[in-house]
Please model this.
Amino acid sequence: MALSGTVIFNILDYQDPPVNEEGFKYMPTENLAKSFFFSFIIGAVTFITAARIQRLKHGK
Model:
């Protein structure tokens, strides 16, 4: 989950990358760190939600 979130974020970010003062496009390391961080959060929320849904279905 974290890897797919990172890949998607980087693909979207690569479509319009930041440009430095000389006009060159670059991919800052900060964007990679943000994508890893947010993908772990999204993965945790998804896992917790899925676990709760499965518990509710098994409880009935």
Summary: The chain has a mean pLDDT of 77. The two ends are 29 Å apart (CA to CA).
